[in-house]
Every structure is written in C-alpha cells, then in structure tokens.
C-alpha cells in the first residue's frame, strides 16, 4: 500500500512502536532548535544529563524572544546560551540574526528530516518537507542527548490544494481557511499533509506560513512535499545538496481528506479572540484600525516584506495608525536594505523593529486601550498583546499594509495594481551571525549570571509515599494558575528556586511557603487539571517544592506528560466522588507504591487523618512507570544512557 | 561694550530684570519642545491653563522615550499627545520619526531663537545657535501659553577652540575634554559659549553633540555661533531662509574663559560612573567589552552613523559583543537605507533598534551582569542601564565601532585608514511623519486612556496654615526618595492620583495613606532637601496629597522651584537647631501667612502640640509670593492671563 509523506518520514525514523494512529511510538530526531525563552531551561536540563556533545545531526540555539532586555536577566541568558552551545556542539544564532523558524528554514531545514523544537511554531519546518514538532524543553534536551522522542502516532489529514491564489490573496488566507474549517481543536492528534496540484503554485516561504500556523489547529505538525519548488529555494540558499524529493505515493491514503480551491479564496482575517474566528475582510467591513504590525515567524519572509514595501512605496502611514515592521531574519533585513525596499518602508513612516519575535509574543508594541490591531501574526488571544481590551485581527501582509495606509480594514485588491514578488534566484548568504560550536567543548567555560540557577533534580520514588495535601482546587485549573507568567515572573524562567515562590501565587499566596515547610506534598484537584499553555515550569517548580503526586478527576494531556517528565505521580480517582473524602491538610499514604505501579491497575490510598481509604488509577505505560520510579525523565535518561 | 552671543539673544528676549549674572530675569520663549515622558504632564498643565492655542512661534511634541510599549499606557499617551497637539496648535512628531533633539535640529531649530524644552538635553539646539534650555513641564506649559520663562541670569563661559580635530577624533572628545576640565558641577549657573577659529572646523551636528552634553556640566545651556557652516547645514535641510548670522562682537567679554586646542585632543571615554570621569582610551587600556550601543541625542546624526558604517563595512561584530544601533531620526535612517550604509551595518551583525532614545534612558538593551558597555550616550550613572553592576563607558561613535569589532576598548586610529564623512549638500527631506495641528482646534477631540487623569489643581493659600507634620526626614533627601521612578511607577506619570500613592514609598510606606487621612500636611527635613533629578512629580504628587509646606535646613535649587510652581511653601529654619523642636505628628500653625509673606522676612510658627514657637524664612521674590498665594504657577498664570 502506498505511503503518504508523514508515513514515509516516520517510518524512516521509527525506533519503537507501530505506525498505528493512537498508539505510542518513538522516533529518532535529526535536528533540534530552541529559542531563548524556553532554551535556558532546556540546556540546563541537557547539562544535567551529563552528555558532553549533542548526538543530533544538527542542533541550533536561537535568541529571538527576550530581546528587549529590560533588565540584566535577558543578556545573562543570551551569554549562557552562547557558551553552553559552544561547549556542547550546538550552533548559536546571535541576537539580531532573526526569528528561529525563519532562519532555520533559510539556512538549516532539510526535507525528510525530523526536528524537535522547544517552540510551538516549530512546524514551520514542514514548509520545506520536514516532520518538525514543538515540544517541552526537556523533550528537546533528551533528543539532543540522542534519546528518542515519544509521541502518539498521529492520524494524517490530507489537504488537497487545487487552483491558484488570486493576486493579493496569500498563503495566510490558506491557513485561515483551514482554521475556519477545522477550528483550533481540529488538528489534535493529527498531522496535516498538503498535496494536490495547488502545492506547486506555492513557494517554500508560503508553504512555511501555512505549516507554521498549523500550530493553531492543535495539530502535531503540518507538512508539504519536497519538490522542484523546494529544490529551487534550497538552490537560492546555496543549499541545493540538502534537497531530496519527497512526495506521497500515488496510492497513499489519509485518515481524513479535505479540498481547498486556492482560486476561490479571498482576503480573510481571524477576528478577536481566536485564530479560527475567520471571516472575509468584506464580511468584517472597514472597521477603524489603530495599529498594524507586520512580522513574526508566520509572515516575515523576504517576499512577505517585499509585498508590503511594494504597497507602501510612495505612500504615508495613515495619521492615526502606528505601523511596526520586524523583519524575520538578518538575511531578509539586509536584502531589503540592499534593494531599497527598506528605505521605502522607512519613508512611509513604518517603525522598524529589531529582527525578532517582538510584539507577537507580547514583547513591546502594546496598542492603546481598546485598540483594533491588525497583525500578520499567528495568535490573537485576549490580552496577549499586553493591552487587555485590545481587539487583535490576524491577517496577511497585504491586508495589513493596506490597513496601514487607509486606516481601516481594507481588501488589498481595492488598492489598484496587484503587487507581485518573484522569489529571488539567489538569496544573500552570510552566516556570520551563526557561531559554530567549539572544537573542544571541554575548554569552554559556561557563563552564568546570578539569575541562572542549576536545575533541581528530583529523587527516585520512595517505597511508601506519605505526604500532606498542600492544596485542594476545583475544575479547569490552568498552567497559568499553577505557574503564572507576566513581566515580573518570566525573567525567572532560568531560576527554579526563585520562580517556584510564585507557584499557585494567584490561588493561594502561602502555597510555596507551606510546601517548603512540609518538605513534601500532594495536590488534589477536579476535572481538566493543567489545561492551557504547555509550560514545563508548571511541573518543574512544584517538583522543586516537593510535590510528589497530583490526584485529580482528570488531567489535561500536555501537563500530565510534563508531570511524568519531572517524576510527579499523576493519579485519577476511580470514583470521582472520592474527591470529597479529602480535605486540605489531610495526610495521605500509599504503601508499596514502587512495587504496585505496573502490577495493579489501581492503587489504594489511605487518608491517615480521617482513616478512610479510596482508589486511584495511575494509567501509565511501562516506560512512564520507569520514568516516575527514576524521579523523572532526566534521571531515567541518565540511567539508560 | 561688545556683546557675546548669549547676551545678544537674552537681550533681544528680555522681558524683565537686568542681564546681571545671579539676578532673576524673565525671557520670551520662541519655541518649545516636549518629549512623551514629560510631555503628557506638560500638556495636562497646558490644558489646565485654559489657553486654546499656543502663543509661541513654534511648539513641537515628540515621541521618543516610551516607544517599547510594554503595556497600554504608552500608546494611550501617544494618542493623547497627538490629539492634544492637534487641538492646541502644536506640531506632532510621530513615534518612529526620531529623537526630539535630532529632529528639531534638522527641521525646526533657528539661530538666535530661544527654546524651552521639557528634557534636560534641550541644549542640543545650541549647536545651531539657539538659547535652548531644559525645564520642568509646567515651565514649558507656561511658555506655550505665552508666559515668560524666569531664570537666574547666567555667567557666560567662553570656550576658545583652536586648531582642528585629528582624524578619528571627534566632537564627543571635545565635550569630554570640557567635562574633564570643568566637572559635572562646573557649569552650574553658567552658559558655555564656544568661539574661536576652531568653531568653523565643526559641522552643525558636531556642535550639537558638544552643546547636548553640556547638560552634564550642570550648565544652563551651551551655544555655538551661527555662521557659514550653519548656513550650509540649513541650506542642505531646505531651510536656508531660517539662517541669520550670529557671532560675538570682537570686544565681547566673558565671566570665564578657557581654551581647547582641538588638534591636541585624542580619543577619550568617560569612565564609570560619571560623565566627567574622563580618561584617554590609551590610559584605560584594552579592557574587554561586552556591549556597544550607538545612538542617542548625543551621537546619532547622519555623519555619526556614516562613520560607524564605514568602520564596520565588511567586518563582523566580535563574537562576544552585542552591538545595538538606533538611528537618531527618520531622515538619518532613510538616508542610510538609501545609500547602502544601513545594509553594511546589518551585514556586520548590528542589532538595528527603533529610531528613538531607547537604551540611553534605560528602555531596553540592559547589558549582562557586570558587563562593560561602551555607549555613544551622555550619561553613565550607576544602574541607569538597567543592570546594577554594569560598567558604562561613554565614547565617540568611532571608539564604539572600533570596540564592536575588536571586543576590547580600542583607539579607532589603530584600525587603519581614517573614515572621513562629508556633510551632505542636500539632506533627504520628508516631513510626512510630522503632523501639523488642526486649523480648527475646537473640532478636535482629545483622546485619553484610562491611565491619563486630569491634572489636580491646588487651592489658593489660606490665611492661616495649620497642619500636622506628616513626615520628618534627615539630610540629602533626593527627588527619588520623594517620588520614586522605575518600571512600576514610571507608567503612572500621567496619573497623579495613582502615582501619588508612591510618594515617599521607599522611606515610609504609610505616608500616602496618612497624608490622605489628614487632608493637609507639612514635611520637615534637614539639609539639601530635594537634590537629584528635576522631576516635577516630586512636588506635584505631594501637592495632590495635601502637602502645604516643606520646612528644612536647606533646599536643592530645582526642587525648591518646583515646590513654588505647585504652590507649596518652601521654608527654611532661621535657627537650624529648631529642627529639634518638631516631631512627626506635631500640629504646626502659621497665622496670617498671606499677609506676612512679603512683609516680614521671617514667619513665626507655633508648634501647637508642644506650645513652642520658632522662626522660618520664605526667601521668596514678589513673583514667587504671588505664585504661592495663587496656589501655584498654573493658577497664577490664569489669573494674569
């Protein structure tokens, strides 16, 4: 039976399990990438593993998130990342070199390879035919150490592209159409594979825009074939030798299929506050726009910004609009500076921002109160812009540029002649801002600032788990409840002892102190515990505070995986009503837990305080049990290295 | 008797008093400028004055400080500034158009005119032959309303420039030499007037670098003649008609004179942590450099950045140095983008920052812990970079660029061929980012965000002042003690009710609540009360809390002026030891204060709590008494409008 692209790549990298959707598989990872906001922790974890040099084909450490540097912490993190990369065989992309996904596509992505990245938009690499997956920092650290990546084998959704985009309709409109049809939950447990005659009409950066924002579908990743267009892109990047052809077999099958006629698409926006709240520009109408921002890993390629420059040339930004533009990479930035397009952008009144993620991750450029902000970004969650009541619309660069001129949401086709940008036959190649690792890592001193603390390591699971209930919470607790973010707490991401002081700080300010005093503890919760952001600090910081188990009615998927990674037992009530048998402060006890894990489907817990007993289910695979017993994935990996 | 330039301009603008150093004079102000960090309060004050249109020849509102926008407050302020400018006849320079002093020099500065600016580096305008003085926002508001500016008639220091700068020695080295000789207190009560044959060898931007950093001398301002060089600059800016010749009479005299041989200067730096800690680069030696920042109102002109581009062209920033460059204006930015220099800067690995003040005012780019940072800026106070233990060196662009390449402090003459940059015969003129005010101000709605509150207005002085001592403090209390700054409090600068909650918060956290409860109060202090930053919030916020008088052993000059401006009585003990007769919480009383002010040299205060009495001196001029009686300068100006 023929294979689709996803099956071909997974098959070639399969280390364990079978390619049956829903089953756990393990794959070999060829490349990794990190960015600085998640990277510091990932490299601290890598260091803790004790592996001298990365075992991947290529690992790259990027700096693109914390570039505003409103305190010493960011620059210290950059310096740590630079030296730890040099020591352990990792390439380092310096601040100013651009956004990880854009740079990686230009200079490092290879069709047919697997990549794990500690950033949710890692699927950008699918535009060049990679299986590129976002994951937690510890998973990336393990991959750098040569360990397999475990995932649930995904279903493959075939998206059949027909026709061709009309002028001023763009790749962003394609992914917005997919989001409109599938919704932000439509991709869960799936990989989106693009195919059909429309594929050849899309450039690699256009394909990357589409796979990038597949993250907003909740998909494991998205992927395009590697074809002549891919070959031409790689040739223009002086990397033709990296090309391999990669297309689905003619008799390949898909678990689901949909068809999109590119010719039928028109300019669209995602309305506040969800990437799948998609409407055509015409449907929304000419609402007044206060801010326009162009850039991000979704839409900051050479051709994106050349289109914007073409639209803005000779015009002036509307008096009541603030227009910010952040080029996606040094390559893009320098090419625009060499060919006059950057001068046209500056002339129009655009505010040129550093080549970095910037406002897409809420780092600066918060709009005014109640503003309408049109952005070429990928997320428009409420408050993410830094302005609680702002209304964010996600759009193509063409729509954004049109709105910047007119001051209202505008169909770019109304501006007159369409702007066409040809892909360059040759990109400007200069990798001087990517530093190769040291030949002799042992000679390199890793520089740490006072805010970068050693990674705390969990202890192996004890035979008998006895601990007090430190906190009892209700349903739908998010990782933001467990480990808050924000400008005060984010700079502490490399400092678990400091950040752990804020665990549950919004729920119960005394939690951290109480946990420290108790020395060990258990958290009890209701349904859907740990939903929301994938931040691993929501497991790591409680681990540091001595949390040994979390007992709930149900868990959110990623947080449960993070709990296991850090050696915290995730347990669910056999009878949900047993939640009522526990009060905050009760002492709970599980005897012979190490023995019973894997042998018995349920564990008995005794409430020492009340004398009552009840049953909980661990629901762990053999591998997960071994991880828990070792005290987490790091210890497990070291034991099995 | 012949006149120097300062005497000529002051004479032509004198409204009151005599030009005798040390005496109070009043002058007419032709132009004003504001920046956004001080501007919002200045325009709130202007609004409170009830004057519909500014009465100056030209008033410009710039946005260059709060451009990172880490919350809604900044963009709201920008919108307020834009609309209030349109309403009241003020030109508005949009965010992205550049740093106020650089843009004003390029597009608005006129030789022989007076200018008041709510920024301490307003003396930049002296480079084009203006008397340009920094002042508090209220003084600028009064000037916009047509009121005179009162100042102590300064001494004039003649700085005789001879010879010519050697290649790779620059204007920055001239002002560093002046700082080395005179110190940061050497300019107090003085204007620095440059003269002599060396003047003609310096371009207008070079002269502006020198007058700009005259602020660090503590000088009232600095000024250069307006000559053929000035004429050529204005012609290249399409503003030749603004030129007038302005030179000192041949028999002009000066209170002090010094001579600097430009030919003898060599590359210098100001060492941590003071702008007058000046040494030659050779003396300091090749210390390791972690960060280089180029820009600011001191050194971000076209020729400054062309020199930097010339040095960096074809080279790569040293692997352990982070180089940031912020062009001074849109004009500079676009010219560099058009002629390829910007591409050379990007190619070298420079991080291109928005055209704004940026890291010079601690807005981003904080270096790593313990870093050595070489900056073309004007201040290197400890902690100002955002990194408490960083060591900041102030230098010319040439030295900064050399250090960026070599990674150590480097004499730029060692790099090989000198870079020479000719002044352009024609600058690129495009004023599209400067918005003219509305023809009909009445039609303009001023947009205010939730953080912009109406200005609180003081009440007229009561006949009998009876109030409790809210706080008793010691010597050398700074305006940072009175009204702290920092990232938490700065965004509240447009919101006096909110920011007043932080008055004395570091000294006594209960102060604000206690003051509000009492309704009115008095502060008692020791020597040198109110030293440091000129921030008017240190008077305005206590006024809002009901502070009616401050009684001390002595005051710092600017803070005392601010207290008067906001209608707070500044009183000093006749017998300093009477400080001991007052305890916090005592009730003090001055009877018939409105009558006695101006009639009696000393006022008697009765300590109602202890029954004791003691004498204090107001030391106020008749005008100041009228201001105090009116409840502050705003009320006084309205009464006399």
Structural overview:
The structure is a homodimer of 641-residue chains. Chain A is an alpha/beta fold. Chain A has three domains: 5-264, Aconitase, domain 3 (2-Layer Sandwich), CATH 3.30.499.10; 268-414, Aconitase, domain 3 (2-Layer Sandwich), CATH 3.30.499.10; 465-639, Aconitase, domain 4 (Alpha-Beta Barrel). The first copy, chain A, has 21 helices and 27 strands. The first copy, chain A, has a seven-stranded mixed β-barrel. Chain A has a six-stranded mixed β-sheet with strand order 7-6-3-4-5-20. In chain A, helix 6 packs parallel to helix 7. Chains A, B: It comes from Heliorestis acidaminivorans. Chains A, B: Residues 515-575 form the Aconitase A/isopropylmalate dehydratase small subunit swivel domain. Chains A, B: Its EC number is 4.2.1.3.
Largest interface, counted with CB-CB under 8 A? A-B, 59 and 59 residues
Q: What's the number of helices of chain A? A: 21
Query: Please, what is the average pLDDT of chain A?
Result: 94
The CATH architecture of the largest domain in chain A comes to 2-Layer Sandwich
In one word, what is the shape of chain A?
globular
């Amino acid at each position: 039976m023929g294979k689709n692209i996803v099956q071909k790549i997974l098959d070639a990298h399969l280390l364990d399990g079978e390619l049956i959707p829903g089953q756990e598989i393990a794959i070999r990872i060829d490349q990794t990438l990190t960015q600085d906001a998640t990277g510091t922790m990932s490299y601290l974890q890598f260091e803790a593993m004790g592996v001298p040099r990365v075992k991947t084909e290529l690992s790259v450490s990027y700096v693109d998130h914390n570039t505003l540097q409103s305190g010493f912490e960011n620059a210290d993190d950059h310096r740590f990342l630079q030296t730890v990369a040099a020591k352990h065989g990792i390439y380092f992309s310096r601040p100013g070199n651009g956004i990880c996904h854009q740079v990686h596509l230009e200079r490092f992505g290879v069709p047919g390879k697997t990549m794990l990245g500690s950033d949710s938009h890692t699927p950008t690499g699918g535009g060049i035919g990679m299986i590129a997956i976002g994951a937690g920092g510890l998973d990336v650290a393990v991959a750098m150490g040569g360990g397999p990546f475990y995932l649930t084998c995904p279903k493959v959704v075939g998206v059949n592209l027909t026709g061709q985009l009309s002028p001023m309709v763009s790749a962003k409109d394609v992914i917005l159409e997919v989001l409109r049809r599938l919704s932000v939950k439509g991709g869960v447990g799936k990989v989106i594979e693009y195919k059909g005659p429309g594929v050849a009409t899309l450039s690699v950066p256009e394909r990357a825009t589409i796979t990038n924002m597949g993250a907003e579908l909740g998909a494991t990743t998205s992927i395009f074939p590697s074809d002549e267009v891919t070959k031409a892109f790689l040739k223009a990047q002086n990397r033709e030798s990296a090309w391999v052809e990669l297309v689905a077999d003619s008799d390949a099958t898909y678990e689901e299929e949909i068809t999109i006629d590119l010719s039928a698409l028109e300019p669209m926006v995602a309305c506040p506050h969800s990437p799948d709240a998609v409407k055509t520009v015409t449907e929304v109408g000419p609402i007044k726009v206060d801010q326009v921002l162009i850039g991000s890993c979704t839409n900051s390629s050479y051709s994106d910004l050349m289109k914007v420059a073409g639209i803005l040339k000779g015009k002036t930004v509307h008096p009541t609009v603030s227009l910010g533009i952040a080029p996606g990479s040094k390559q893009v930035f320098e090419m625009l500076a060499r060919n006059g397009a950057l001068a046209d952008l500056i002339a129009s009144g655009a505010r040129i921002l550093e080549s970095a993620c910037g406002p897409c991750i809420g780092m600066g450029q918060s709009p005014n109160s109640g503003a309408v902000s049109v952005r070429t970004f990928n997320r428009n969650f409420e408050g993410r812009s830094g302005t609680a009541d702002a209304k964010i619309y996600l759009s193509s660069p063409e729509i954004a540029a049109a709105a910047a001129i007119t001051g209202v949401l505008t169909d770019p086709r109304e501006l007159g002649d369409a702007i066409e940008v040809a892909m360059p036959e040759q990109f400007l190649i200069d990798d001087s801002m990517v530093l190769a690792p040291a030949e002799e890592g042992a000679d390199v001193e890793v520089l740490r600032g006072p805010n970068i603390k050693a990674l705390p390591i969990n202890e192996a699971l004890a035979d008998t788990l006895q601990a007090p209930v430190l906190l009892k919470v209700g349903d739908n607790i998010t990782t933001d409840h467990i480990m808050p973010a924000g400008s005060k707490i984010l700079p502490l991401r490399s400092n678990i002892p400091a950040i752990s002081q804020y665990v549950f700080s919004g729920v119960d300010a005394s939690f951290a102190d109480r946990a420290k005093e108790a020395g060990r503890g258990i958290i009890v919760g209701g349904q859907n515990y740990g939903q929301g952001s994938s931040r691993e600090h929501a497991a790591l910081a409680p681990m540091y505070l001595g949390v040994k188990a979390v007992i709930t009615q149900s868990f959110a998927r990623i947080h449960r995986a993070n709990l296991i990674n850090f050696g915290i037992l995730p347990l669910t009530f056999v009878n949900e009503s047993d939640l009522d048998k526990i009060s905050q402060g009760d002492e709970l006890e599980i005897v012979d837990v190490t023995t019973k894990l894997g042998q018995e489907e349920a564990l008995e817990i005794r409430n020492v305080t009340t004398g009552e007993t009840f049953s909980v289910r661990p629901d762990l695979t053999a591998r997960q049990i071994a991880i828990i017993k070792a005290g987490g994935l790091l210890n497990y990996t070291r034991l099995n290295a």
